[in-house]
């Protein structure tokens, strides 16, 4: 008789992957990164277990935004107080804080629960080409993801 395999947290084998954001459009990059972070590229995927891998995104300041999104897309931050709504367009945010553009795109593609808050901590985004995770020996993201 066959039994259903349910992965446990101890069964998870975490790897490190690196991806260059200058080769991608923002949405295409975010879907690939979210897939690897959740672990959907593995045969042992289960929606209730954090079975994903770590992802390092470099060159975040060179990510492509198609069409007029650089000028028309806005990122909002609300303090909760009257008059506390701040708005910045994508061009300004990409120049000042390129990590937030990618973090917000990936975060929007994860489920809205406690597990997603744990998963997003595995994403490391850097505006330039250098990252401090060379000791983890990151590999490029596989093409089939």
Structure, explained:
It contains 5 helices and 6 strands; from the N terminus they run E-H-E-H-E-E-H-H-H-E-E. With 145 residues, the chain is an alpha/beta fold. It has one domain: Ribosomal Protein L13p, Chain: A. The strands form 2 sheets. The chain has a 4-stranded parallel β-sheet with strand order 5-2-1-6, with helices on one face. A two-stranded antiparallel ribbon has the order 3-4. Strand 1, helix 1 and strand 2 form a beta-alpha-beta unit. The protein is globular, with a radius of gyration of 17 Å.
How many DSSP-defined strands? 6
Which bin fits the share of residues in helices? 25-40%
Please provide the ordered H/E string of secondary-structure elements: EHEHEEHHHEE
SSE-based structural type: alpha/beta
Distance, first to last CA = 32 Å
| CATH-assigned fold name | Ribosomal Protein L13p, Chain: A
Shape: globular
Question: How are the strands of the biggest sheet laid out side by side?
Answer: 5-2-1-6
Layout of SSEs?
Elements: E1 16-20, H1 26-38, E2 54-58, H2 69-72, E3 74-78, E4 85-89, H3 90-96, H4 98-107, H5 114-119, E5 123-125, E6 139-140
Helix pairs in contact: 1-4, 3-4
């Amino acid at each position: 008789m066959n039994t259903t395999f349910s992965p446990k947290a101890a069964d998870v084998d975490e790897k490190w992957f690196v991806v260059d954001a200058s080769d991608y459009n923002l949405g295409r990059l975010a879907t690939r990164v979210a897939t690897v972070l959740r672990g959907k590229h593995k045969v042992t995927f289960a929606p209730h277990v954090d079975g994903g891998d770590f992802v390092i995104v470099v060159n975040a300041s060179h990510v492509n935004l198609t069409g007029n999104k650089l000028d028309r897309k806005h990122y909002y931050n609300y303090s909760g107080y009257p008059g506390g709504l701040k708005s910045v367009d994508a061009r300004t945010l990409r120049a000042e804080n390129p990590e937030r553009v990618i973090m917000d795109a990936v975060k929007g593609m994860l489920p809205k629960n406690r597990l997603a808050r744990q998963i997003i901590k595995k994403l490391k985004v850097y505006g330039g080409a250098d990252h401090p995770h060379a000791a983890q020996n990151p590999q490029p993201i596989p093409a089939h993801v």
